[in-house]
Amino acid sequence: MPSSSESSVPQTMAAMVLIGHGGTDKLVYRKDVPVPKPGPGEILVKVTATAKNNTDRKAREGLYPTRDKGDVTSFQIGGTPTLTFPRIQGADVVGRVAAAGEGVDPARIGERGLLDFNLYADERRDINLTPDYFGHGADGGYAEYIAAPADQFHTVENRDLADAELAAMGMCSYQTALHMLNVAGVAPDERVLVTGASGGVGTALIQLCRIMGAVPYALSQREKTDALLALGAEAVLDRSDMQGFTEEVRELTGGAPLDAVMDLVGGDMTDRFIDAMVFDMKRRTTYPRLSMAGASAGNLTEIMWTRIYLYQVQIFGVSHGTRAEAAQLIAWIRDGRLKPVLHGAFKLSQLHEAERYFVDRTKDFLGKIVIVPDSEWASHGAGFALTS
Questions:
Q1: Contact indicator for 114, 167 with CB cutoff of 8 Å
Q2: 288 and 253 within one domain
Q3: Are 248 and 235 in contact (CB under 8 A)?
Q4: In CA terms, which of 5, 83, 115, 306 is 20 to 30 Å from 26?
């Protein structure tokens, strides 16, 4: 039986429940959802903020085909679908421990923390071959409570970080970003292009490059130049004008090619990114590396394989990350080396509006949107209120 102040944990809760693949009409706000019970080794977390990720929309709309491009399917790397309905989405959860399951120290009750969003297949710390996540293979944080493994709920007591700000540094973006850099072997002083630089993974990549000693170049809209430079970008290239992209890179780098590209865009742009890594191979000291974790500009890219193998371009596909990378990120958050990039907050009951805002986001959009339960709004959301 869980150890807690039983009278403080209700039997039911409010939650946004996904009832099937489709539009936002498939997200139903309910106030009668049973509060989950923490099992052995688990805790019950009272949710105060959950960051919104693009994977929420893609999973809802069934946009994860791996073979037939017309498929409507869920993320199922393990071989079988784990997204079943009804499902509560939301991966990057912040809150406080409300109850402790069997084998968990009751002294943890009351701790504030950030959830490592992964549903790991095993205990290995260095590899994650069949990634799944809370909000997809198990219920997530678009609710007032969530049950999760105690060892994946990392205490972060930094008083200078509000709960919404901590959620904005959630693992879905930051762990993916760190894994992109790690698998590509990015080293100090290397020139790294960050595409989709204004989003959650992009802003994480810029910060992580600086922590690791690499030099990040951002690809984004010109209107976001000042904000991205302040975040740590060396320069910002305009994604709306790609005709002279390689020449612009030459000018910015003093004639040197990019060492690596962190690609969140895909589509027709990917070939241009390769151009910017191979235009002067004699100046390179390492292989060109392309690390991919998104396809916002299109799921299909046409590339000549002769370009790939003759220029020895190394391509890495990235989804999620490892336990070791989660631990590293938590250490950097606790040390204050990572900063939140929070765009604003919506109430949980306004998730439909938040989804529309996210899809139609304006030129001033930078960072993350956070969803706060209505019952926690006054304490954790109102100060970051965002409406369209």
A1: yes
A2: yes
A3: no
A4: 115
Q: How far apart are CA 375 and CA 114, in angstroms?
A: 19
For residues 88 and 142, membership in a common domain is answered with: yes
**pLDDT tens for each residue of 180-236:** 999 999 999 999 999 999 999 999 999 999 999 999 999 999 999 999 999 999 999
- What is the sign of the dihedral through the CA atoms of 138, 135, 68 and 300? negative
What DSSP element (H or E) covers 328? helix 323-334
- Cα–Cα nearest to 372, from 381, 363, 364: 381
Tell me how many domains the chain contains. 2
Name the pLDDT band for 300 (thresholds 50, 70, 90). Answer: confident
| CA distance linking residue 19 with residue 147, whole number of Å | 20
Looking at every residue in the chain, the average pLDDT score rounds to: 93
**Of the residues 268, 302, 317, which one is the last residue of a structural domain?**
317
Q: How far apart are CA 44 and CA 2, in angstroms?
A: 9
CB 72 within 8 A of CB 115: no
DSSP state of 24: G
pLDDT tens by residue, 231-283: 999 999 998 888 899 999 999 999 999 999 999 988 888 999 999 999 999 99
Q: Do 159 and 235 reside in the same domain of the chain?
A: no
Q: Are 102 and 40 in contact (CB under 8 A)?
A: yes
Amino acid at 342: L
Q: Summarize pLDDT for 58-96 with one digit per residue, the tens.
A: 899 987 766 665 666 666 677 778 899 999 999 999 999
CATH code: domain of residue 43: 3.90.180.10
Structure tokens at 203: 């802003």
Q: What is the CATH number of the domain that holds 249?
A: 3.40.50.720
Q: Which two tokens stand for residue 351?
A: 């998730």
Could you report the per-residue pLDDT of 109-139, keeping only the tens digit for each?
Answer: 999 999 999 999 999 999 999 889 999 999 9
Q: Which residue has the tokens 């019950």?
A: 44
pLDDT, position 1: 44
CA distance 35 to 211: 40
Residue type, 208: L
Q: Is residue 336 part of a domain?
A: no
Which pairs from 298-305 meet CB under 8 Å and 24+ separation?
Answer: 298/266, 298/267, 298/268, 299/65, 299/69, 299/266, 299/267, 300/69, 300/267, 301/266, 301/267, 301/268, 301/270, 301/271, 302/268, 302/271, 303/270, 303/271, 303/274
